[in-house]
Prior knowledge:
By secondary structure, the chain is an alpha+beta fold. The chain is built from 5 helices and 9 strands. The strands form 2 sheets. A 5-stranded antiparallel β-sheet has the order 6-5-4-8-7. Strands 1-2-3-9 form a 4-stranded antiparallel β-sheet. The longest helix has 19 residues, at 2-20. Mean pLDDT is 76; it is low at 3-27 and 175-179.
Amino acid sequence: MKYKILIGLVVSTITNIIICQPSNAENSNFFCGILNKQPVTLMRTVRGNVAMIRWVSHNYFPPPWTAQRRCQEVARRFQRNYDNGNLKYIIPGRLNGEPVVCAALKKSDRCTNINLLFTLKQGANADQTLQRLMDRGALAAGYVLSEDGSAAVDVEIYLDEATVEPNVSPIENETDTKP
């Protein structure tokens, strides 16, 4: 009798874990590729590869943080937040006194070390920079304001509206060292 209860708990737990996974996780993942000679963090979707962040500035951060290395690290952070079910919105914010961009479950969420996607240049306006780095047409469709007036990007709408980028290949890791 005790074994049947234990087996039932294990099966129930495994079922809950499987059900809580994002429904399209097997069809989507984030990676870094090259478009127009620039590193781009992309998401592989059912429609095709969608550019999330175009790394247009190459000298904001000191070595070893090249645009390519940042692209690869940010792809890993997008994937981690996506896998954890924490990527409904992309929000600008501040963390440790620096402007940042983060994943969020709610528009009103705050940036933390856990949901951090990337840090911006000191003094940058996170909201304006986010608008500059993402696909403008898709961003306009997915751009929402929360009750407190802060901006957020609805990821689902963004992915539905963003241009699909043909013929993008992942670029190899520069290094496996993490910041």
